[in-house]
Every structure is written in structure tokens, then in C-alpha cells.
């Protein structure tokens, strides 16, 4: 969580709930994580990467998504989005300033690897 000066913590931009974590059968060293992300009104993530395959399904609201090198998209309920292992997730945000948005994400990654890694500005294309 980011701090907004002094000891006052800023409210979270999103709420992540892990639903499932399992090793993939027949694929050594890989696991799948299933989680929901609720973006609060106006909420967004800083640029990041997953070093994994990420499959996103929009459950409610509207989200703006973009990987570097692609055009940004706005997705509503039923919309899907994919991130590859080398992608930088440049835009991940709630498209609304007044209503929450929620996505379901399936992440296929190396066992023990972090789910998300911040991408410093100098690494962005």
C-alpha cells in the first residue's frame, strides 16, 4: 500500500482475493492461480509484469487494459484480456470514477515466482 505523506496510508486502488492455487498436473514446475481483483472507483495499478500467462475475464463494471505495444481497450462484463510472459501491463484501471469493477484472473506461472513485479519507468519501452 502506498503512503500519502507522513503516517497516513492511502486507500487501496484494488482488492485482490486469491480463490485457488494448484500445481499443474503434467507440467513440472508450473502452477495456476485463480483470483479476483476488485478495482475501486477510479482505481488503477502501476505498470507491472507477471512473467506468466494471464487470462482475464471481466465480471462487472468496465476496465481499461493495455500491454505495451498494443492499443488500450475498455472491456465490460464478459470481456477478455490476455497477457503473455514478456508483456508489460502498462494500463490496468477501472474505467469508472463512481462504480467498482471486478475481474477474474487465471495466472499460469512458475512455482514460487511472484504473481506480479513492478516495472520501473526505465524498463518501459
Short key terms for the protein model shown above:
0% helix, 125 residues, 10 strands, mainly beta, Jelly Rolls, 3-stranded antiparallel β-sheet, 5-stranded antiparallel β-sheet, single chain
Characterize the structure shown.
Helices cover 0% and strands 48% of the residues. The chain is mostly beta strands and 125 residues long.
Topology readout:
Elements: E1 14-23, E2 30-39, E3 48-49, E4 53-60, E5 63-67, E6 73-75, E7 80-83, E8 89-94, E9 101-110, E10 117-118
Antiparallel strand pairs: 1-2, 2-9, 3-10, 4-7, 4-9, 5-6, 5-8
Overall pLDDT confidence: 88
Biggest pleated-sheet summary: 5 strands, antiparallel
What is the general shape? globular
What share of residues is helical?
under 10%
> Percent of residues in beta strands?
over 45%
What is this structure, in a nutshell?
The chain has strands spanning 14-23, 30-39, 48-49, 53-60, 63-67, 73-75, 80-83, 89-94, 101-110, 117-118. With 125 residues, it is mostly beta strands.
Amino acid at each position: 500500500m502506498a503512503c500519502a505523506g507522513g503516517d497516513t496510508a492511502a486507500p487501496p486502488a484494488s482488492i485482490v482475493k486469491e480463490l485457488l492455487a494448484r500445481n499443474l498436473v503434467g507440467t513440472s514446475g508450473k502452477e495456476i492461480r485463480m483470483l479476483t481483483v476488485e478495482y475501486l472507483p477510479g482505481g488503477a495499478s502501476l505498470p507491472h509484469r507477471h512473467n506468466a500467462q494471464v487470462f482475464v475475464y471481466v465480471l462487472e463494471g468496465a476496465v481499461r487494459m493495455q500491454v505495451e505495444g498494443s492499443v488500450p481497450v475498455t472491456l465490460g462484463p464478459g470481456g477478455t484480456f490476455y497477457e503473455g510472459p514478456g508483456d508489460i501491463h502498462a494500463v490496468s484501471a477501472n474505467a469508472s470514477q463512481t462504480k467498482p469493477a471486478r475481474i477474474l484472473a487465471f495466472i499460469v506461472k512458475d512455482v514460487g515466482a511472484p504473481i506480479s513485479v513492478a516495472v520501473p519507468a526505465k524498463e518501459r519501452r
